[in-house]
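Hi support team,

I'm filing this because I wasn't sure whether my run with zinc ion finished correctly. The job status page said complete, but I'd like someone to confirm that the output block is well-formed before I use it downstream. Pasting the exact inputs I used:
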Amino acid sequence: MSKDPVCGMNVDENNSQYRSEHNGKQYSFCSEQCKTKFDQHPEQYSRSAA
Ligand SMILES: [Zn+2]
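And here is everything the job wrote out:
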């Protein structure tokens, strides 16, 4: 399990079809909406998730 950095939901990273990478770190998302938000401002979300 990993955490969706955008909405804070727990996401099964093996099942998630919405993934993104930032600074060499993998992120999983619950929805395409969250992935899109992250992709627009990755530094904003990766900061709090680290
Ligand atoms: Zn989400």
